[in-house]
Write a structure and sequence with these properties.
The structure is a single chain. With 171 residues, this protein is mainly alpha-helical. Helices cover 49% and strands 4% of the residues. Helix 3 packs across helix 5. It is elongated. The chain starts with a helix and ends with a helix.
Length: 171
């Protein structure tokens, strides 16, 4: 199927995008022979592909080292600044979401989260409020959701088999 996807993209002049590339092209040292073989096939197709391929990941330290030589460009997106986080919160909070008086995009943005984690926190806090039967989403709901997101974020960035320099790169 991998070969078919690349052939179809080439034949139809399409851009291919692999979101969460680390789940497809993980370091083969930590995988069995069958998955390692699939990654070999994917790496070969990437190398032969003459079109545009976009890979995204927030865990570059988990990617197979052989991938880097097959890439023409690596772009790192920095974590959002405070102002950018405020804008993300404002954009993601539904206008009809009942927020408690002590909750605002400005206070929520104080925690250094990326857009994906902000979205997850928002959904998790809303679920907590719904489960509790609360008429508004309170600061305590966000606090629990933010703590969970930060724990998840710390686990994601731990990569014991890569150097710090390698782990800082991002696609």
């Amino acid at each position: 199927e991998i070969e078919k996807a690349f052939k179809y993209a080439k034949d139809n002049d399409l851009v291919l995008m692999l979101d969460e590339a680390d789940s497809f092209i993980g370091d083969r040292k930590h995988l069995g022979m069958i998955l390692g073989s699939e990654i070999n096939t994917l790496l070969t197709q990437i190398e032969k592909f003459e079109g545009i391929l976009i890979l995204t990941t927030n865990q570059i330290g988990h990617l197979d080292p052989a991938l880097e030589r097959r890439l023409a460009l690596i772009v790192e997106f920095k974590n959002p600044s405070l102002e950018e986080r405020v804008a993300i919160w404002k954009r993601l909070i539904p206008k009809k979401m009942p927020l408690a008086k002590d909750v605002s995009p400005e206070t929520l943005a104080e925690d250094k989260l990326t857009g994906g984690f902000i979205k997850n926190v928002l959904l998790h806090a809303a679920r907590l409020a719904a489960i509790e039967g609360s008429k508004s989403v309170k600061k305590e709901h966000f606090d629990v959701a933010i703590l969970r997101a930060k724990e998840s974020q710390q686990q994601r960035w731990r990569c014991p088999h890569k150097s710090t320099a390698q782990s800082r790169l991002a696609l």
